[in-house]
Specification:
Four copies of one chain form a homotetramer. The first copy, chain A, is of the alpha/beta class. The first copy, chain A, folds into two domains: 158 residues, NAD(P)-binding Rossmann-like Domain (Rossmann fold, 3-Layer(aba) Sandwich); 159 residues, 2-Layer Sandwich (Dihydrodipicolinate Reductase, domain 2), CATH 3.30.360.10. Chain A contains eleven helices and 14 strands. In chain A, the strands form two sheets. In chain A, strands 3-2-1-4-5-7-6 form a seven-stranded parallel beta sheet, sandwiched between helices. A seven-stranded mixed beta sheet of chain A has the order 9-10-8-11-14-13-12. The two termini of chain A are 34 Å apart. Chains in contact: A-B, A-C, A-D, B-C, B-D, C-D.
């Protein structure tokens, strides 16, 4: 067994990491931190973990303890304060914040409004979508775990851009459940506000927009324009991204599907289906993808995942598995709820 | 036309009062106050009122202006600070807070944790369920507008207690939409918390419990024990109260229904139906009631209403109509959404 | 008072017509038909109409009675069987089906799979979005009441196409509540299927696609390509259309907003807002529109309406008002629920 | 490994059995039947099982194959047609229908409207709530898997009745998610009907009423009156039962909690908590229980579970584990989703 710790374990992604790790066959969760909750039982905050996680929140992890892997589920800004000391000690880190996702520190500053304080590690961080960048992840000490929207969107579009069959403009109309907004009550996630409508927000200004662009450009090896419109949808878990791109030249649907099934051959967690469903993936690390060819040359790509699993904590564990030389699917190989 | 003002118009009940008053054939809304929003347009806070309510929030109402009726939609504690000066000037007041509902100031102190500062007006306040206490409301200067749960429960049970056909113990299992919790985001009304479950809360300790007891005792002219369990349900508007009482002696369902239809004869806003529905009353001032006789002698009474209309602002206007000598249904006589 | 009848009054749009007409100051609803429910009370099917609509369903309307306006809320295919006999007698008709919306009978046949049997009236039918085609509606005997998606989308895009400031391709990502699917239970609208996800359906193949294209081409006076992706969303009432177009040349957001406010000047039911909201329009005949300029030249237009009101029965009454020479807003001039 | 088959695998409980069995460490699922879907892949019907269950639906199971355990997820009436031939061959059976739950065939006939055709096996069937009847289950060839409402209610109330501390009347106000209604679309589970309200149904006439009574009487060894009111609630998975009983003599809350913790000591899947939560148990085999003492002597017991897991397929596997001599928690020992 290898050992793990979670820094910042009070929120949804921290709880979800613990939910998944407590059944992991190879990783033992040994510590969770929370400044606010230090001293209290983890299962007092996350009651569903009662009987599974018998830990108390610590103020901070003890760096003299040797953890094989540390998951950092702190807010952006706070992550880059704590990551350097871990990496320095040679501890493998999966960081779930936005701090190490954008490879260019100037882009980071522009979208996050902060100076980047750890450019050295930023340069070495691997971007953690395993279906696209597994080799780099395998060698990395630090993996930047992607945002939920970029994971869902880029898994949906990567095959098209990797084969250069589509033009350089993409429209992403994304719909997310409310758990993506985190545990802190806000005006927008107040039930009477959001339960009977779908709310577009941060249109063109969401921080996941440059992240999507960076990933697609890396795949396409060419500049791409991204128009990204996130919506808050009245469900708790799950996400659908509906993306629109134009073919450079005629292709039929069968050829497109062949391109996808070749691209994702052997990738356990990506499933090509005729009708991607959120319910089919909820609770699991799967991503479902489907597509339609509309009009002359528009490809409509639909992709779904559970924003807390494949969109966050599940993918973090998948990255950890790869970094640690464990089977990629360890602790994650179970189906979604279905209904 | 008579003139009206709303004190405390930033929340859901304030907005709902304005939504209903803006179409009222006899009452003109002339002022709304909000300390927090003073100076800003009402329709900036409540966008659906754009084009209907052309007012700016005031810091306070000008008592030199002569309003025929003032609706006080302030929190409890704050209401009894402002009501005395209104009543003193002879202005008719409908108070939507809990301050004037419980006729015994000691009971008020026990449940609200505050000393009552306006016992004189408390003594004279009428309790505003028009179907039960219309005569007193008609003569009152101050009406305490009831809580949503007491309105829904007591309309459902009053016929049985008024005819003394049931025993003195009642169990009320109530389910409310989240708008009843008000506009302020909280942990419990955070969408990811409450959207996929039904949450019992304040079991036996909710402030509406003594209010239900007071009203039923007034109707029954005898002491009654109330066990009241409210639940937060994942809908926005609407409420169902399922109440359980035991018959003193055998009665069949037809006799019970006859008792109800006699009791509510001529009461426009109470509708006896076989299956009470929230959807049928949403957006309207109607209350639907149905009942079943189960086992030897248990009557299961089900009652529904829209907590923001018949459970708050609609009933407040109904009370105002009565106080002002207007037709009781003025501005309120339209059907629920149905779907 | 003018008199009205509804043919096909058992479904959601029929019930909604009755809900609105029962409070209309100038139109009296005198008959509703339903083959299935003939002889039973309308309020037995639509309980919320109890006390407002005191009619029984008839097998068919009696053509010897002279109705000033007939609303046909029958399914497509059935409408064109009944409309000719009405028009022939000079009765004004608002048809809520798809039968008279697509001006080209060949396009109708392609998308509806039926031969058009009433091409003569099809030629004379006015398409009923009053904000775009009021003059023709005012003179028409037959108005084809638009689909919910086309109304929402085209109100959102018409200003841009009327001024020819955008390119000829539009992507419409639309999200609708489930009441748009009608009253008949189906696999897709089964609560366990649709309540925890958002489901894309009929991608590129929905019948509202050619209708949107027709309307926009009429406004633009030029050919337009429409990529239309409808989604089923887990709310009951309301719709959001997020549309994407590209500017032909640079414009700033202020100029775009000016273009919209000029275009909709004096149109009571269209409201430009910074954040279009479904809750703000639910229950009402309003459409809210907002927009953002993203990237180099993409305009993201967001529009919301209540699919049963402005998207169906409310707009039908608005059309009837115009046809009958009544004030356009009669019976419709009240705000949405807001929350 | 032991081998299993599922008869009737097209519905929600069949799919859920497969979802759980595909990760079971000791049981291999070898066959699933469905008359309607015979020949098609299981993962075509239940897409979330793609990659986990590689079976095709069979018309029927081949009795010459020796299955160690057969789960019958057929409708009532159909189960008693197929169970006898299995039991006769000595195959262990868990039946998820209502056919073998009510030990008295006359009660069965009264509530199900059918003659019981297999009274011999009915006499020998064990009722499968392991926390209450484990010894009998361990020896049984046939286990009647309980209804969701009886499991949730009786786990909540059994400690009180087993110690005879409460009176013989119980009121159960139960709220269920819509998946409990099964996979077949109906008027009541049509999203526009049920999504914005909570609907009481079959008040006093639901088939789970005599089942609850039978179990509680067995525990209490005395007659009990049950008043049972089920409600359909707008969530998909999960159930809350709020039950009301009266203490025979004074007890404080601490004593009651002690009584519960003693009773459930060592029972892995029952968890005493201060606030029972549906979200905490969704996806899992756990049942959460909490209680409050209200007024003079009323105990309000709240219990939650996932109706498809502990309320159906999870409990069926728990029963199978016991019958087969496997660890009771095998394949079921993971936490709920939490959020």
């Amino acid at each position: 067994m290898v050992t793990a710790a979670i820094i910042g374990g009070s929120g949804y992604t921290g709880g979800e990491l613990a939910r998944l790790l407590c059944r992991h066959p190879k990783i033992t969760l040994e510590a969770m931190t929370s400044r606010r909750l230090a001293g209290s039982k983890v299962s007092d905050e996350h009651s569903y973990l009662e009987g599974f996680v018998d830990l108390k929140y610590q103020q901070a992890i003890d760096l003299k303890e040797r953890y094989d892997i540390v998951f950092v589920a702190a807010p952006h800004g706070a992550s880059m304060e704590v990551v350097p000391s871990l990496v320095e000690r040679g501890i493998k880190v999966v960081d779930l914040s936005g701090d190490y996702r954008l490879s260019d520190p100037n882009v980071y500053t522009k979208w996050y409004g902060l100076e980047h304080k750890d450019v050295k590690n930023l340069d070495n961080a691997a971007y953690g979508i395993p279906e696209l960048f597994k080799d780099r992840i395998a060698k990395a000490t630090l993996v930047a775990n992607p945002g939920c929207y970029p994971t869902c969107t880029c898994l949906g579009l990567a095959p098209l851009f990797s084969k250069s069959v589509v033009e350089d403009k993409v429209i992403v109309d994304a719909k997310s459940g409310t758990s993506g907004a985190g545990m802190e009550p806000t005006k927008m996630t107040h039930h009477p506000t959001c339960a009977s409508q779908i709310i577009p927000y941060k249109v063109g200004t969401h921080r996941h927009s440059p992240e999507i662009q960076m990933v697609l450009e890396r795949v396409a090896k060419a500049p791409i324009e991204v128009v990204f419109t996130p919506h808050l949808m009245p469900i708790v878990r799950g996400m659908l991204c509906t993306s629109y791109v134009r073919l450079k030249k005629d292709m039929d649907k069968a050829s497109l599907l062949k391109l996808y099934s070749d691209f994702y051959s052997g990738k356990r967690f990506v499933r090509m289906v005729s009708s991607p469903s959120i319910s089919a993936v909820v609770g699991s690390n799967f991503c479902e993808i489907g597509l339609e060819l509309v009009g002359a040359n528009t490809v409509v790509v639909m992709s779904t995942l559970d924003n807390l699993v494949k969109g966050a904590s599940g993918q973090a564990i998948q990255n950890a598995n790869i970094m640690l030389g464990l089977p990629e699917t360890a602790g994650l190989d179970f189906p979604g709820l279905g209904v």
